[in-house]
Amino acid sequence: METTVLERPIGVSDQPAYPTIRESWAFVGWYLLVVFGVGVPLFLLGETVFSFSRSVTVVVITIAANLSLLSILRWRAGTRWLPIRLQGQESASLYAVMPVLILTAILVLSLLDLLHLPNWADKTFQNLANTPVLAFVMLCVAAPVLEELLFRGVLLPGLLRNYPQRPWVAIGQSALVFGIIHGNPAQLVGAGLLGLLLGWLYYRTSSLGICIVVHALNNFVAFLGMVVGGKELVDKSIVDIFESWWVYAGVVALSALVLYWLLRRIWFMTEPVVTVSLPEEAGQAALL
C-alpha cells in the first residue's frame, strides 16, 4: 500500500510547518476576530439595507467569515503553509462504510443528550429549519466543506507535520479547537468528539474528501431531525424516541460494537501519514 508523505514546504527546512500548538490556540482568537469583524457589518447590511431574512443572513455570515479566516491563515502562514490535500487513500469500499460509520457514531454520541447541556443556538436552528433549502446549504454543504478546509485541511496537517511522534497530540488539539469554536455547550463536547473521529480518519487516510463526506453525513442526519422530525422530535428526550431505556441501551451498545469493528477495518485498510525526517527536527517536539 502506498504511504502518503507530507513534506515540509520548500525552502523552509529550518522552520516548523504552520501551525504549532501555540499558533493553533491563536486560531481561536482569529476566529472570534473574524466573526465579529465580518459578521457584525454583514448582519447590519443584511438586516437594514438588503432586508434579508435572519436565515439568509446567518448563511452569508458563516460563508464569508470562514473564507475570510482561511485567507488570513494563508497570509499568516506564508511559506510555512502546507498544501491542502483533497485526496489520499481513497477507495470505493472506504466511502461505502462511511454512512454506517457516522450513523453508529451519532447513536453512541447521543449519550451526551442525557447531560442536558444548554443549547444557546436552539432558536437559530429552529429559524433555519423554517427554510429547508437554506438549512441544507448551510448544514450539509457550506459547513462541512469550509470547516474541514480549516481544521483537517490546515490545522491538523501542520500539527501532524510538527509532532510526528505524537499524532494524538495533533489530533486532540485540532479536535479541542474544533469543539471550542462552536461556542455552544450543547455542541462543544459532541463537536470535539466528532473532531477526534475526523482527525483520526484524516491521519489514517490523508483524505480531506473523506472528512468532508463524514462531516456532511453527520450534519445531514441533524438536518433531517430538524426539518422532517420537527419541533416534536427536538423536544423529545433520546430515551423517549426509543420508548424504552432497555431498547436505547441495546441500540447504543450494538452501535458501539459496530463502530469499533469499522474503525478496526479502516485501521487495517489504511496507512497513517508519514512525515519526512530531517536532522533539525530533533527539537521540534518542544514547540508548544
Query: CA-to-CA gap between the ends?
Result: 33 Å
Q: Report the strand count.
A: 2
The value of Rg in angstroms is: 20 Å
> Which strand order do you get reading across the main beta sheet?
1-2
Question: Could you spell the SSE succession in H and E letters?
Answer: EHHHHHHHHHHHE
Class computed from helices, strands and strand pairing: mainly alpha
Oligomer: single chain
The major pleated sheet works out as: 2 strands, parallel
What form results from the Cα inertia axes?
A: globular
Residue fraction in strands:
under 5%
Number of helices: 11
Give a short overview:
The protein has 288 residues and is mainly α.
Account of the protein in words:
By secondary structure, this protein is mostly helical. It has eleven helices and two strands. A two-stranded parallel sheet has the order 1-2.
Topology:
Elements lengths: L4 E2 L14 H29 L4 H24 L14 H5 L1 H12 L12 H8 L2 H31 L4 H16 L2 H21 L2 H28 L2 H5 L2 H25 L4 E2 L13
Helix pairs in contact: 1-2, 1-7, 2-6, 4-9, 4-11, 6-7, 6-8, 6-9, 7-8, 8-9
List keywords for this structure.
288 residues; disordered C terminus; 1% strand; 2 strands; 11 helices
